[in-house]
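Lab notebook, bench 4. Still working through the backlog of constructs that have no structural model yet. Next entry is a single chain of 329 residues. Request: give me the structure tokens for it.
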Amino acid sequence: MKRGTLILIVSFALWILWTPLSADAQPSRKVPRIGVLAAVPASFAGPYVEAGRQAMRELGYVEGQNIAIDYRFAEGKPEQLPDLAAQLVALSVDVIVVVGDRGVHAAKRATSTIPIVMVSAGDPVRDGFVSSLARPGGNITGFSSLLPELNAKQLGLLKEAVPRASRLAVLWNPASSGGVLGFREMQSAAPTLGIKLQSLEVRTPEQIEPAFSAMVNERADGFIVLTDPLTFRNRKRIVALAAKHRLPAIYEVREFVDDGALMSYGPSLIAMIRRAPVYVDKILKGARPADLPVEQPTRFEFVVNLKTARALDLAIPQSVLLRADHVIQ
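Model written out:
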């Protein structure tokens, strides 16, 4: 055999042997792992989870193929959030998406290095989550709901819908930082509207029904509900009690109205959840949370349920209806 031929055969054999080895030696591409933390029960989270998944698919991420997602729901028990946040940190997730102020507090305590994308945080600067909205400065960024600033507007809308109202109750959980801010906002706005506020604090589901008894005893003309995991999880019960006692009310999110409440005014939670994957995508591609400005809501919904109004024998003024984004007949 000629020397040149022998060299070619040996070279080809070495290539055959080396090729699979070099391919095996290449590190496999890591599938990003996302953690999702929320205080609500998993049974309530379905539509929001699907909205997030759809937004991820639009960005090219398919769960189970090129991205993994670990969900942790506190089942309406916010005291479980710290342990659930610690579980996600132990899994070494690449990003944690957190819904609600109390979840952000838990995630912040659990890690100062893993990026956190918050959704529906009332006042992230005042709560100490970020240094400023424009430059968060740490490992947290995301979306502020601005609900505290909107509570005075909600108070005014309820007064317009029920002009005779002079005494309104506020159903809220003082364990929620957003609730504290929102109640203060309404306290400042109430005197200019000629309204006296009745504060009804609810920390457990068992306190909801007695709160309605207190409204009736004090002859409240209506009430406002501040959203937190407790009130959101018990929204059908709250709406039913409002109907039973024939009390008009306004809420912060339209999910209450979808369940039969009278009115709501506030940002769309679904819209914020659909935006969250945009920040997740940026972070996975190398952006730092410290440099991603906290977004404020650009879409607000005013929803009125006329069926509920009729059941209350309440004639909603045309000036109010003309401003509604959605009117449920």
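Notes after review: The first strand starts at residue 33 and ends at 38. The two ends are 93 Å apart (CA to CA). Flag for follow-up if needed.
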